[in-house]
Automatic annotation (TrEMBL), chain A:
Keywords: Cell membrane, Membrane, Transmembrane, Transmembrane helix, Transport. This is Carbohydrate ABC transporter membrane protein 1, CUT1 family. It is a multi-pass membrane protein. It comes from Micromonospora humi. It comes from the Bacteria. GO terms for biological process: transmembrane transport. Residues 1-28 are annotated as: Disordered. SUPFAM superfamilies: MetI-like. It is found in: Cell membrane. The keyword Transmembrane applies. The keyword Membrane applies. InterPro entries: ABC_transporter_permease, MetI-like, MetI-like_sf. Residues 100-314 form the ABC transmembrane type-1 domain.
UniProtKB/TrEMBL annotation, chain B:
This is Carbohydrate ABC transporter membrane protein 2, CUT1 family. Its main location: membrane. Residues 90-291 form the ABC transmembrane type-1 domain. Gene3D superfamilies: MetI-like. It is found in: Cell membrane. The keyword Cell membrane applies. It is a multi-pass membrane protein. It comes from Micromonospora humi. The lineage of its organism: Bacteria, Bacillati, Actinomycetota, Actinomycetes, Micromonosporales.
Length: 327, 309
């Protein structure tokens, strides 16, 4: 055991034996040796693996109920095959296409605002000369990230109520009070602005970190070439944080379909369904509230597959074009 | 992680000696205004909620409470704090957070430690099993069916187990363990410690800051979570404070709808407004109280994860 635990090199490739001496019989033998040597390490992985298999992979398999008839209280995997019945059902369901469109619109708006604004804020913060001021703005702007989504929704409701702060400003300029949360026309604005409010500050962290790694000589060289501040930002700073931008963009695209389910669930109501209802909230109502679990699982599976496809393609495009990829 | 002197160097390298142009001075002024705006917009909702929580109902209904409390009184605070349900939910939040955080930190630490061992056979597969779940999950319905059929409804396990390991946190911790010097563990092995001993006596004592970060990551997320409890807890006395607040909000919204919008139901809705504000203040207070102390752990944790990811 003693000599076994001593590693000759720390950067041995995974899957290759750390020993210089090659084993004579490849195949089954190395596994047996690995188990004998590292059984304690493997034993530490048992409980986490059990978690992943039970609560991550089993539900993936559980998606077969999208193709099967599910009876509450019956088998986890349903009773008998129904083929694509549930998929046909939702493809011909007009509500599905309405929530599908809402999902795309909200996802696109979120991407449009929540992806670039942290970059802008980080660039602005980067130009602040006073250390204390910068630190202060950072601390304040990170705060909303730590709040529960319920609190954020509660604040939105208070601010936008008929007697709330926003309507007081409207009143001050002589406008009629608006029942914002009861009007479908306002939902997207409310959703996206509260999302920006909660995420923009926290989103700057990675960019600020990337900004500090840009080589100062590059600015020097740009200055000698006659670049002004703006051109330095354009030609030095932005290319410097491009890998971070691409990584976050891919991740953002990956969550495109999973628009803030919890927040929408808290903020929407039947009056705002026409713009607020998204795939995830719809399948929540269909599946859990009304109990059509197979139908809802079919919708969920469809959404998850689109999400996975989006990440994979965004990643592939990014790797081809700018050489940044998640793995 | 970004050290402060690296930051200082980066800043010093910007043109200092050259006289700032007029355009740049204007930019600095505009920038200061914009950043002040960011601060104001971030803080404003908090202030107006506090003002509402301390005001008299009549002034709120009249739309006269903005940043300054009108008709100052603490009645609503007394009403909320004398509601036993509120304290029961608060206690539930604490219990759920402690139990779930404990499980999560133990599982994450164990798995991250295993994944950090580069020589381990099958390590790539073990990493892959975790990372794949970042991009593809079973989804709401199969999870709901699973948790229900495991009989976890109305127990703390329905909250703790389905979200026990967060893959991002796992990768942060794995990156940290990989950064520890190998020599330490080699020495431990020479001294006759097995893997368990090395982890408990050598690695963990060196990782106190990292473990603290993990505890905070998980604790804040469990403290803030509401949907699992909302989904799996049927009894009032099992709800955490986030769901208590949610039900308060939903009650107010329902009242608005059944009352035909803004007309007759005003009384119910408005009397709820102070109560809602007080509940928001009391729920957000613990987070605000610890925020100054935990913020830097979060920032450094995120950076460590980013270097890796």
């Amino acid at each position: 055991m003693l000599s076994e635990t001593v590693r000759p090199s720390s950067d041995a490739r995974p899957g290759t034996s750390p020993r210089a001496k090659p084993t004579r019989t490849p195949g089954r033998r190395p596994w047996r040796r690995a188990l004998r040597r590292d059984w304690q390490l493997y034993s530490l992985a048992v409980l986490p693996l059990l978690f992943f298999l039970t609560f991550r992979y089993l539900p993936m398999l559980g998606n077969v109920i999208a193709f099967r008839r599910f009876r509450p209280g019956g088998s986890l995997f349903g009773e008998y095959w129904t083929g694509l019945r549930y998929f046909r059902l939702f493809f011909t369901d007009p509500t599905f296409w309405s929530v599908f469109t809402n999902t795309l619109v909200l996802g696109a708006l979120t991407l449009l605002f929540c992806f670039p604004l942290p970059i802008v804020l980080a660039l602005l913060l980067n130009e602040v000369r006073s250390r204390a001021l910068k630190r202060f703005v950072q601390s304040v702007s990170y705060l909303p990230h730590f709040l529960s989504i319920v609190i954020v929704a509660a604040m939105v409701m208070q601010l936008l109520s008929v007697d709330g702060a926003v309507n007081q400003f409207l009143g001050a300029v002589g406008a009629e009070p608006v029942a914002f949360l009861q009007q479908a026309g306002w939902f997207r604005t409310i959703y996206v602005s509260s999302e920006v409010w909660q995420t923009v500050g926290w989103g700057t962290i990675l960019y600020l970190a990337a900004l500090t790694t840009i080589d100062g000589d590059l600015y020097e060289a740009a200055r000698i070439d006659g670049a002004n501040r703006w051109r330095q930002t354009w030609h030095v700073t932005l290319p410097g944080i491009r890998p971070t931008m691409m990584t976050l963009l891919i991740l953002n695209i990956g969550t495109f379909m999973a628009v803030g389910f919890e927040k929408i669930l808290l903020l929407y109501n039947p009056l705002t369904y026409p713009t607020a209802d998204v795939i995830s909230t719809y399948l929540y109502r269909v599946g859990i509230v009304s109990g059509n679990l197979s139908y809802a699982a079919a919708i969920g599976l469809f959404e998850a597959v689109i999400g996975l496809t989006l990440v994979l393609s965004a990643n592939a495009i990014s790797r081809r074009t700018v050489g940044t990829s998640l793995w | 992680m970004v050290s402060t002197d690296a930051r200082a160097r980066g800043r010093a390298s910007r043109p200092r000696g050259i006289r700032p142009t007029r355009g740049y001075r204007i930019f600095q002024a505009v920038n200061a205004v914009v950043l002040t705006g960011v601060v104001v917009v971030t803080v404003y909702p908090f202030l107006t909620i506090v003002a509402r929580s301390l005001s008299d109902n009549a002034y709120i209904v009249a739309g006269e409470v903005n940043l300054v409390p009108r008709g100052f009184n603490l009645t609503a605070y007394r009403v909320v704090t004398s509601d036993p349900t509120f304290w029961v939910s608060y206690r539930n939040t604490v219990v759920y957070t402690v139990v779930a955080t404990l499980i999560s930190v133990v599982l994450t630490t164990c798995y991250a430690y295993v994944l950090s061992k580069r020589h381990l056979r099958g390590r790539t597969a073990l990493v892959g099993i975790a990372v794949f779940t970042m991009f593809f999950t079973g989804g709401l319905i199969p999870n709901y069916v699973l948790v229900t059929s495991l009989g976890l409804k109305n127990t703390v396990w329905a909250i703790a187990l389905p979200n026990a390991v967060n893959v991002f946190n796992l990768l942060v911790m794995k990156a940290f363990f990989e950064s520890l010097p190998v020599e330490l563990e080699e020495a431990a092995a020479v001294d006759g410690l097995d893997t368990y001993g090395t982890l408990l006596r050598i690695v963990l004592p060196l990782s106190k800051a990292m473990v603290a970060t993990m505890v905070l990551f998980y604790a804040v997320s469990f403290w803030n979570s509401w949907f699992a409890a909302f989904l799996y807890m049927d009894r009032q006395d099992l709800l955490p404070v986030t769901v208590y607040l949610r039900n308060l909000l939903a009650g107010a919204t329902d009242a608005t709808q059944t009352g035909g919008g803004l007309g007759s139901a005003d009384d119910i809705v408005q009397s709820a407004a102070t109560i809602q504000s007080v509940t928001i203040v009391l729920t957000v207070l613990p987070i605000l109280a610890v925020y100054p102390f935990i913020q830097r752990y979060f920032v450094s944790g995120i950076m460590l994860g980013a270097v890796k990811g």
